[in-house]
Amino acid sequence: MTARSLTALAVANRILLWAVFLTLAVICVYPMIWLFLNAFKTTNDMFAATWGLPKVWHWENFSTAWNYGISRYLLNSLIVTTATVLIELTLATMAAYALVVLNFRAKAAIYTLILGGAILPPEVSLIPLFRVMAETGLYNTYFALILPNVAFGLPFTTFLIRAYMTGIPGELREAALMDGAGEARIFREVYLPLCRPILASAGLISAMRVWNEFIFALTFVESETVKTVTIGVMSFAVALRADWGVLMAGLALSILPILATFLIMQRQFVGGLTSGAVK
Amino acid sequence: MTDRSDHTRATWRQSLQGWLWVAPALLFLVVFVYGPALTNIRFSLFSFSAMSLDWDFVGFDNYLRLWNDPKFTTALTNNAIYAVISVACQVGVALTLAAVLEARVFPDLSANLFRTALFLPSILPVVVVGLVWQLLMTPTTGLIDQLLWETGLSSWSKAWLGEPDTAIFAVIFVSQWQWTGYIMALFMVAIRAVPRDLYEAMEIDGASGIQQFWHITVPGVRETILIVTIITILGSLKVFDIVWVMTAGGPNHSSEVLGTLMYRAAFRDDMIGYSSTIATVIFFIALTIGLMQIKLQKDR
Fold this sequence. Notes:
The complex is a heterodimer. Chain A has 13 helices and no strands. By secondary structure, chain A is mainly alpha-helical. The mean pLDDT of chain A is 88. In chain B, strands 1-2 form a two-stranded antiparallel sheet. Chain B has a single domain (71-298), classed as MetI-like (MetI-like fold, Orthogonal Bundle). Chain B is mostly helical. Chain B: This is Sugar ABC transporter permease. Chain B: It is found in: Cell membrane. Chain B: One of its GO terms (cellular component) is plasma membrane.
């Protein structure tokens, strides 16, 4: 915008926009600041003044919360998330490779079948899945979370990777075929290295989804040793209704890993999580 | 499809190879998504509990019962309200915010900070968001109540989550808080793909920012608007976690949605057949929305 267009109206507009965005930014960020500050207070301090810095910083809230089981929940979430992402990326990349470069019958129908899974919410499969988990002994194990999480993540992940692979020139594969390389080798040595950026984005999207997943974790596991952090903080919140300080310290700890990663790598985060916005 | 090989019909040998590559993914979808979804439809025709060995075939009785269940009406209405508000906020508001941030109204650094701040809620687990806002909305001790007292608006003070009139709206508000910034970031990516010279040409013609928004931005990101709208509506249909954490459908079932209704029927009241019926309704609504999306995208 040039100086001459800055009429009084434009100035007023600009002030208004600043006010709107500043307000929205505060509304979006402040609840988290509030959470972290109050995590240091005793319940009484909180009732007296819910904002403001703690008069005494009660670090012990965090150690109490940590010993209450948060550490175990975080570990379980890490295991479930890592396993899901690895399996999901492997299967999705293989499927995408076939859909882009190989020629086979019923290809369009198969692609539709894979994508169609994205329409169905977990609710529609939950009850039969629960019975399957119970009957196969998978109930209350990591697999009870990993397997359905992979299945429900595959449609979007395959879509993302396939879209990216269509941009890789087919000549690369043809040249490799001439040299006598098989599909497995072309996949591993040509396509996988070229797909690194989309694998990182798709992996991040999938990891966020699994880390925050709720309904499977609520339904398919029950012991403290398998519970992921989302369900962990739920039981934590029920147990600590009366002790807000420790509860909030627990909540703060549960989001600390994700929050720290986001703040350090926010550009990659936003970029990765929004890939797929335009095809 | 971009590859040229589609024109020649594959031999069985070629096909076998292709099928082997997609088989693992397909297997997962059949075993954990499609298979259970179809089984669920069959369940909806029976009356049984988790432990019972004998299933009574009841035909469409469960559907009849659901149709006459006032909680079902409440849930459907709440899902619809959820969808309308979410589309308004996450498509309308988010697109507007994205357009402002991309219009270089603010210096780059502050635009970037605004985007990060607004994006932040979307990386947090829904459970934590729900619990934190539950604390914020607690009467007397919560931040919102204290804020209202401080500013002399104490007459507005309310148990937002504890009253049937406001509970669902309080939950919907939190959902908008969490997701508007994320959709905004999606729109920013889409807007960046719109050719810049279109804006410059209009600016030379003296068009205002608002005119540029309607004539260039909106048509330029039509595809994204369509997809985001569909995703938002689907999201409002399957919403479960935020409601379950904040109100569990209460007070007195006023904030019930299809997801919470289904979950409670199955895992609290042990009415598996009835619960499957609710899940089947969700299935068919989702299917309808999905088919609509395919049709809309084909039309262009």
